[in-house]
Amino acid sequence: METDLPIYGLACPDIKATYIEFDTQTNTKNCGCTMKKAPLMLLQGIITDAKTKAPFQAGLVNVYNVTKGTGTLPDAKGMYQLQAAHNDEIRISFVGYRTISLRAFELPKLIELQEETQNLEEVVITAKKKTNNYAIVGLGLTALLFMYAISEDEKKKKPKNV
Hints:
Blueprint: E1 22-23, E2 28-29, E3 40-49, E4 62-65, E5 70-72, E6 79-85, E7 89-93, E8 100-103, E9 110-113, H1 134-157
Parallel strand pairs: 3-9
Antiparallel strand pairs: 1-2, 3-6, 4-5, 4-7, 7-8
């Protein structure tokens, strides 16, 4: 159930006023702005492996609000929390498991991820060229050599106290 109630005390983007009268019949402010934001609810639950019934380790599973573009990761006990509107699409995914996509109001408190295996026809392995920083090391050593030479030259210029 979505509602379009006013939020008093916030500035109107058009006239930058902190208090504006709100007409609940037309859902408009006296400046002409409308408020059409759905209220947010806190989604909470536990994510477990369907086979072992054990919660996933912290940070492995991705809980993502596709509609808002926000996400979270479960803690060490598999518990997650995410803010979402009633009809936001929530996607829960982990490599090697089936991705679950549900509306926020459909999301159960206990989510069990099923393993998913696929046979691959082709695997492509690429390598990154290793870069050697010999030039940078060489410049550093050259700078040290010059500093040593200058300090030796300075020692020769100083008169010796007898």
